[in-house]
Amino acid sequence: MNSKWYSNKVFIIMLHGLCWILLFSLPYLLRPSFNSHRELVEQNKQNLTYLSTINHIIWIGLFYLNAYIIVPQVIYKKRFRKYVLVLVAIFSALFVIDWSLFYLLIDGVYPIKNFFWFNLFPILFILACSTAFRMVSDRIKEDRLQKEKENENLKTELSLLRSQVSPHFMFNIMNNMVALARKKSDLLEPSLIKLSSLLRYMLYETDEKVALQKEIEYLQSYIDLQKQRFGNNVIIKTCMEKVDDFYEIEPMLLIPFVENAIKHGTGLIENAEIDVELRIEKNMLSFSVRNKFNETSEEIKDKSSGIGLPNVQRRLDLLYGNKHSLLITKQDGWFIVSLQIILH
């Protein structure tokens, strides 16, 4: 997952540096008139610089102390009375430190009001910024972890759905092979060759998106196997255009529709027929599968029924969201599936 701009380390370092420059400038921007202390300032200019530098270091320490210790240990635990006491203790400690440093470095009387001029607003500002920094940082981290968790859950669910497709598909194909073997058909050998190509595709080509043309070839091989199985008992018509190589699609996404049509459109159905059509127009994949069905007969479903279409509907929702439309209808003895996907 790509890092957001606000979580980039370079950006964070630059932001911290900019904030410290601003904060270090505040005492000079807010400096009151010191006409009465002008002589004191001139005599102790260098020591005042030392005092100011030490105060800046203390402010930096206060920022990270509040962000990484006080906020998680006090504010996050909703100990607000304790936080007020902590603030009082911080101001008292800073006052003592500033007073001690002044008498060590400056030759003169300590002006108490200067502590509030130079420290009160900057310290409050630092604490506010530090608290906001920690809360925003934690929220960004929480959102990132949640997003990663959702992505991992999505990958896990997609892997599970894909693993459900393969055994269901293989179960039907192996039944076809058994039927040909019982008939001692000469079509068994070419069927096994086609089956091996299908297995190769399922094992090595389905980890990521695949070229749409490969998916079409895989689909055509499956249909050829079914034609060999049913012979003249079932009419299977296909019209699938050759597409450009740059189009990609999620693997094994189309096969369940054809598999479902063959499963439910054959058997005790007069003049059984299955029509498969695929075309591309302006980056729009249009895929339709039609099969005749018997409206009067009640179908006895086996334990494996129901895996195909619910599975692929779920995969479509996860992978393509609002970039696809799926319409399933029954009309005049036909079961019709129409799928459209916007491809990149």
Find the count of extended strands (DSSP E, 2+ residues).
7
Radius of gyration: 37 Å
> Averaged pLDDT, please?
78
What is the tally of helical segments? 9
Integer count of domains? 2
Question: What composes the largest sheet?
Answer: 5 strands, mixed
CA(first)-CA(last) distance:
20 Å
* CATH level-1 class of the largest domain: Alpha Beta
In short:
The protein has helices spanning 9-29, 38-43, 45-75, 80-105, 112-182, 188-204, 212-230, 255-264, 308-320, and strands spanning 210-211, 235-240, 248-249, 273-281, 284-292, 324-331, 334-342.
Any overview of this molecule?
With 344 residues, this protein is α+β, with helices and mostly antiparallel strands. The chain has two domains: 5-146; 185-342, 2-Layer Sandwich (Heat Shock Protein 90), CATH 3.30.565. Helix content is 62%, strand content 13%. The protein is built from nine helices and seven strands; from the N terminus they run H-H-H-H-H-H-E-H-E-E-H-E-E-H-E-E. The chain has helices at 9-29, 38-43, 45-75, 80-105, 112-182, 188-204, 212-230, 255-264, 308-320, and strands spanning 210-211, 235-240, 248-249, 273-281, 284-292, 324-331, 334-342. It has a five-stranded mixed sheet, covered by helices on one side. Helix 3 (45-75) packs antiparallel against helix 4, helix 3 packs across helix 5 (112-182) and helix 5 (112-182) runs antiparallel to helix 9. The longest helix is centred in the middle third of the chain and has 71 residues, at 112-182. The chain starts with 8 loop residues before the first helix and ends with a strand. 18% of the residues are buried.
